[in-house]
Amino acid sequence: MSYTYESYDVVVVGAGHAGCEAALACARLSLNTLIVTISTDSIALMPCNPNIGGTSKGHLVREIDALGGEMGKNIDKTFIQSKMLNGSKGPAVHSLRAQADKEDYSRSMRKILENTQNLTLKQAEVVEILTENNKVSGIKTFSGGIYPCKAVILCTGTYLKARCVYGEVSNYTGPNGLQSANHLTESLKALGIEMYRFKTGTPARIDKRSIDFSKMEEQFGDEEIVPFSFTTNPEEIRKEQVSCWLTYTNEKTHEIIRNNIHRSPLYSGNIKGTGPRYCPSIEDKVVKFADKDRHQVFIEPEGNYTNEMYVGGMSSSLPEDVQYEMYRSVSGLENVKIVRNAYAIEYDCINPMQLKPTLEFMKIEGLFSGGQFNGSSGYEEAAAQGLIAGINVSMKLLGKEQIVLDRSEAYIGVLIDDLVTKETHEPYRMMTSRAEYRLILRQDNADIRLTKIGYQVGLIDEERYQKVVQKEASINKEIERLNNTPIGANKEVQDLLMKHESTLLKTGTTLAELIRRPELSYEILAPIDKSRPELPKDVIEQVNINIKYDGYIQRQLRQVEQYKKLENKKIPEDLDYYEVPSLRIEAKQKLDKIKPISVGQASRISGVSPADISVLLVYLEHLRRSKV
Questions:
Q1: How confident is the model at residue 38 (pLDDT cuts 50, 70, 90)?
Q2: CB 429, CB 376: distance < 8 Å
Q3: d(CA 345, CA 181)
Q4: How far apart are CA 68 and CA 56, in angstroms?
Q5: What's this model's pTM, rounded to 2 decimal places?
Q6: Which of 455, 454, 450 is nearest to 440 (CA)?
Q7: 371, containing H or E segment
């Protein structure tokens, strides 16, 4: 029998990284929100790598924070090692990464959920999305409980019909041996939603006491800790950091894998799901990169209060006996004991091209989705989507304008645009190379780019917003001062230039021109800058970057200006593409299926050519003139 319980504005299905951000956004925007999870012990679970951030992913976490999300604050409280990656390269690719205490991270996020007003937590399995006239009306749980609601956000992660596999072993469970969600898929298919079957994997967890660290390279955290959240005081989170360790596979490792490749479910045909191209298993690496005689292996702690260590770089689904042989061939792991076997996991997800850029399903009003359910991979990608879905559900129910971040505004914009416009048949992973405007989408300026949007939707308070406004004003004022401060070729100046092996001056210049020299910086010029004001460190960082890369930034801003022209050409929702003369059949089919909101978005759809866009522009102009 079914029973109807209390109604909610929003129901969030799943309490992983996407679900947490989605539910918190809705609740903080005063909507009565229910978050339903198969296990309350798996809130914000990290079933794979024990870290947050990394190349391009660090950008996403900073953007989540700037919009008013929680991930950055939570990792700042629970990290055990912090490191800035790509520090020797340009600022566009600097990416913050932090090892997390996995249990602490999950526990801390659960505490936040449980103490957020308007948010109710429920342990249950959702088996059906209820609709009336293609509009969400509620959800039904396995026990028969019905919860009426106005909107649903699906954040099911890797739990839908999940199957964990290694060798000949196959368990129908979710990650970490947790219960899978075996019934919701059929409900979604009945609603006409197209489903994919994807696969990901994780390496073994090993006993710290069985590792010989003397054969490995110790990897330390940074002395100077840079927080993920713009609201975190770096001095308040200083702590003794835990080391990670680096070792390598070798020819013996690769020989073991090659000799047993037929026993891998990836190659035997036991796994049907498509895996991530940019995070391959160790057997994939050995087969596809046969010329490499070794691969990096990072040994990373799972937390402060456990001896479990994560074997980064050696994800696998080989049988248990092969795993022992393979891992023990690695330097430092000769006597290793496996606590948890490596495994691959298959799960159901959707074709994200069924979504609007707001992350609402085109065909079902009030049904939104985020995270790995949308065909992406990674905690950070999931959290970013969950936050945007939560914001847009809230804006929809509150009668306000929904937000769509474009590719020139945020990595989040790139992520979602790629998902909803570019046909992909493998788990999507964010990378800096995907962002055309990455020089202006740096992690260090995410607050300046996005805090205003977070403030407008209601997730950033007045005090925090005004601090960012003042910061931006300080940056602009200092840049103007430096551009207009002349410097002569006096002895003090020449001595400083000589000290830093910089070309001596023959005539006068400005401080800004000196900062542009590769070997100089804002900080280095302090002795000859007599009128320099006292400025916060984050302001100095922005001044230095903006002056040093001014030419490149201006060129990218001009590119953005051209890009915006197409983005600002909106397409009517009810446009019948089959009525557009001279448009190719394939383009009509693709455009009708995706229903882009702008000409810019239409231009990025697979199968739509520049010639098709020209035809579409002419037709839209014809419509505009006919209305006039």
A1: very high
A2: yes
A3: 13
A4: 19
A5: 0.94
A6: 450
A7: none
